Amino acid sequence: MASANSSLRVSDLDFNSIRNNLKAYLNNQSEFTDYNFEGSGLSVLLDILAYNTYYNSFYLNMVANEAFLDTAQIRQNILSQAKLINYVPASPHAAEAMVNIRVTPSTSENQMVDYIVLDKYTRLLGADIEGKSYPFVTLNANTAHKSGNSFYFPNVWIQQGEVVTQQYLMSANNTTAKFEIPSANVDISTLTVTVQESASNNYTEEYQLSQDITEVTSNSRIYFIEENENLNYTLQFGDGVLGYRPKNGNIIISTYVDTQGTEANDVSRFNVIDPAGGLYTGNVRVTTVTSSRTGGDKESIERIKLRAPQFYTAQNRCVTVRDYETILMKDYQHIDAVSIWGGEENDPPVYGKVYISIKTKGFYTLTNLEKENIKNNLIKSKNVVTVTPVIVDPDYIFVTVRGKVYYNPSMTTKTANQLLDIIKQAVYKYANDDLNTYKATFKKAKLQNYIQTADASITGTDITIYLQSRQKVDRTQSKKYYYYFNTPIEKGTFTNKLFSYPQITVLDTSLTSRNVFYEEVPDSFTGVDMIEVINPGRNYASANVTITGDGTGATAKATVVNGKIVSIAVTNKGINYSRALAIIDGPGGVEATAKVVLQARNGTLRTYYYNDLGSKIIVNTSAGTIDYDTGEVVLNSIKPSAVISNDYYDLDILTINAVPGGEIIPPLRNRILTVDDNNIQSIQLEMVAEK
Question: Which residue would you say has higher pLDDT here, 108 or 638?
C-alpha cells in the first residue's frame, strides 16, 4: 500500500531529478522497504525509465518550440510559420557593378558595322584583389553607335552570377501547379517566367510575380514564389480562381541568375567573355566605374523571426515610420539599417515629405539610379499618395583608435603582434556590437573595456579617439567642402590635433604645385571679443580692468564719466580663453561689474608641406575654418589638380580627422558611427611591455 508521500513531482524534468523522484516513489512502496536500489539490477531500470522520461519531455518541448515563430530553430518550421502570415523570406541578392565598355574592332574584324548591341546576359568574368574569379552578366541590352573607330557603352550595369534556364511541362498529374527551382542560390529579383503554348507552338506569354492578392483575378497571368522544405524555391501558379492556371501541355520556362551573394562583393576587375555585339573579341576594354556591391545572402532565420511579424503588421503599405523600415529591410538584403523621419521633424521642417536614410552593407552611398528605383518600384505604390519619399545619404563618421596598450609579458605566451591582432578583433567586435547603426552611441570607456578584456595579460590602455569624415574631391571645379561631425570637437594640442589625409596638389603664391596637408592654426581661437558693462558702479575717479581666466594676454581699458564706468574697450584679445572674468577696481569706486564675451569657439585651418630640408612651409594661412562647438569644418574654395593616391582610400577621397570633445557621442538621425575594418589606419596602437 503506498504511503501518503508516494506522489511523483512531475514538474522536475532534469534527468537526476526524474531518477530521484522515481527512486523516492519506489522507496515509499511497502514492497521495497529497505531495498538497496543502487546495489541491484533495478538501478539500470531506473536509469532507463529516467532517460525515457527525459527524452520524451525534451522532444515535447522541442515540438512546442517549433510550433511558434519566436522559438523555432529549424528553418523549415520557421518557413511554415512565416507562410501563415504571407511572409516570403528574401532570396540571395546578386552583387552589382557598373562598368564602361569600349569595343575597337581590329583590322581583321568587320569594319562596316555602324552600331552593335551588347545583349542582355552578355557574360563577363570578374576577379577580386586575391585573384578569385566570379561570373557576371549584363542586366539589360545596350546599344552603341560607332564613333571614330570604336563603339562605347557607358555605365553598363552588370550582375554577379550565371544565367540558368529551366523548363517544366504542365501536366494533368500536377494538381498543385508547383515547380521546384533546383537551386538555393537563385536571386528571385532576376527571375523571369514565361509560358510557351506547346512543344509545337512557340507562342509565349510572360507571367508576373504576384504583388497584391486583392488585385488577382481568375485570368491574371501571375505566379507565386516560396521557399520549400528542401530550402529551394518553388514556383506556384494560380488555380483558376486566384490567378490563371496554365493549360496541360504548356511549357513553363524560368530564367534566373544563380549567384554567390555577399562573397562576390568588392570585385573590381572585369573582362568580357562573349563576343561583343556577337562580332568582336579582339580589343574589348572594360573600365570599372563602381566595384561590385549589394550582394546579399539568403535571409537568415534570425532576421525572418524579426521581420515577419513586422511585415504582417505593415500589411504591405507604408504609413508609419516602422512600415517604411519593414518594407525596405525585407526587399533589399544589402541594407543593414534604415533611419526614417517625417518632414515635420526635419531641420528646417518640410511638410509632405518623408526622409529615408539607408545604410548598406559596405561604406558606400546609393547611386541616383538606385534611389529612384527604390522610390518608384518599392515605395511609390505603397505609401500615402500625398507624401513624397526623399532618400538622403547616410553620414558615415569613422572611428579611428590611436595610442598605447600596456601588457604584462609574464602573463602570456603570445607575442606583441599576436596580442595586437587580438586587440584589433576586439575593436571590430565593439563596432559590430555597439556601432554600425543609426541609433548607436559611442562610449570610449566601453571600447577600452573591450580592449582590456581581450587578453588576461593586458593591464591598461592610453588611447586617443579620432573621428574621420570622408569626401570625394572634384578636380574639375573650384568649390568649398563642408565636413560635418555634428558633435563638439577638441581644439588641437601639439600631439592631438585636426589633420587631413592624403595630400592634395595646389598652387602656392608663386604658382608652383605643392602637395599639402591641412592642419589647425595654433592659438587661432578663444580670445576676448568684448566686455559688456553690467553695472556702471559709482564714485570712480579712474578704473583698472584685470582679465583673469585660463588664457593669457587679454587686456582692456575702462572709460569713466561722472564716476561711472560707461564702457570697457578690449586692447588685446589674448589667446586660449575658454572662460574669463573682468575684475574692476579704482580709488573710491564701488559696485561696478562687467561680463566678458569670448570669441566664438572657431579655429582656422592652414595648408603646409615639408621642403627637402624637412622644414614646414606654410602655403595658405587661411585655408578653412573650424567650429569646435558644432563640429563643422569648412575648406575654403579649392580646385586641386590631384589627390595623392594611396593604399588606404578610394581615388580622390580626402579625409578630415579630429578628436571628439567628449568620451560619449550620442546618436544622430542619419549618422553612422563605425570602424572601417578594411583600412589598416583605423587602429594604430603601440604595444608596451611592462617591466
Answer: 638
